Amino acid sequence: MSATLEALDLDVLRLIAEEPRAGVREYARRLGVARATLQARVDKLQRSGVLVSWRPQIDPAAMGYAGLAYVRLQLAQGMLERTVVALADIPEVVEVNAVAGNADLLCQVVAKDNADLERVLQLIIASDGVERSSTEVVLSRRLKPTVVPLIAQMHSELQQRTVLAR
């Protein structure tokens, strides 16, 4: 389901993405709307599934897990769910996505160093259902995950549609 977003919704999302700790009162002040109006928009964004979490972002590298890798897994037929359950038991596997292409799963993995990465990889390939794996070690992160440019693009498209509709 795709939510219909208005300019104010996009402005709220941008502020939340840029400064999640500022709070509803501060967002309302910056956007020049009543606090109740802003709270209603936040509630709407949560109900529609656009705003999924207020969780803090925690950097594993700052906690001693400086290694980052992506592991592609090819699975035995019919083993997807069982393999995902096994991978969830490995703390260093921080994300698992089912993908199309040469692999069945793409996993994001953290490790303390190369020796630790090897240990984690051994746990992964020993998981039920894993037939083959390939690993890509991240040398450096050049662009961290962000949705702010996407929000800006949607805002611009909304403004263009509004101008054309007049």
From TrEMBL:
Query: InterPro entries under this entry?
Result: AsnC-type_HTH_dom (IPR000485), Dimeric_a/b-barrel (IPR011008), Tscrpt_reg_AsnC-like (IPR019888), Tscrpt_reg_AsnC/Lrp_C (IPR019887), WH-like_DNA-bd_sf (IPR036388), WH_DNA-bd_sf (IPR036390)
Keywords assigned: DNA-binding, Transcription, Transcription regulation
Q: Which residues form the HTH asnC-type domain?
A: 5-66
- Classification via SMART domains: HTH_ASNC (SM00344)
Mind telling me which PROSITE patterns this protein's record contains? HTH_ASNC_2 (PS50956)
Superkingdom of this entry's organism? Bacteria
PANTHER family, per the entry: LEUCINE-RESPONSIVE REGULATORY PROTEIN (PTHR30154), TRANSCRIPTIONAL REGULATOR AZLB (PTHR30154:SF34)
Name of the molecule in the record: Lrp/AsnC family transcriptional regulator
